[in-house]
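Subject: DKNYY family protein

B.,
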Amino acid sequence: MLYNICNDISNEGYHITTEKVYKNGIPLKDADPDTFTAIEGTLFYSKDSNYVYADYKIIESAHAPSFEVVEGSNGLYYKDKNNAYTQWGIIDNSDGESFEWVGHNYAKDKNNVYFDQYVVDNADPNSFEALESYIGKDQNSVFVRYYKADTDIDNKSFELIRFDEEFFGKDERHVYAVFYNSSNPLQIFPEADPATFKPIGEYYAVDDSHVYHYSYYRGHIKLLEGVKPENFKLEYDPETGADAKSHNKLFRQGELVTTK
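Prediction pasted inline below.
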């Protein structure tokens, strides 16, 4: 760093001299100053007329003249004429020529749909649409990240419900909690009415006849037996730590704490 300061070489970002290219004060091996450019949308990838660099290393398999950020992806995806890439590296078996951004965190090529560097197994590229950052669907199935939901979903009527930063799914028959890190990511709220279902906070939800507690940490949905939504409200009790009540019953995280 002291050497760079003495020689007027920046220790932050890219610095180009007549002889070398530096990144954060470290020279990039064999980089050509005359043709060097940083790739739009990233500080990770850069290139010259001969090489593509991932951070400080040359990607030997990359084709520098065609390497670019994938349009619309906000720097999530990159491609050249042969392959596609994320900031974690090359996407195995991807086709750079047909690769395109679908929306949110999803992309596709002529063969597959991708979530980051992962193939979304059994997703149809021709009909796939991204619903939000971690959820998409095709003509046959719904997917959360790169997992296919095994639940029997009515695909045509499936849509998302948003509550603050949470998403739920619903179709004509069911309401679903979204468990992002589960291999079976859509779990049914038992007996829930899609037309009247709504989350109310503190991981509770109601419809016109039922009250539910759901837990992403525990990976469960619980129907509060015998509790009616018209009598249920969120209310903190400092003595018991309860977060909700119904008449004289107090609940904490969906469990009955005490009856007063």
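The first helix runs from residue 2 to 6.

T.
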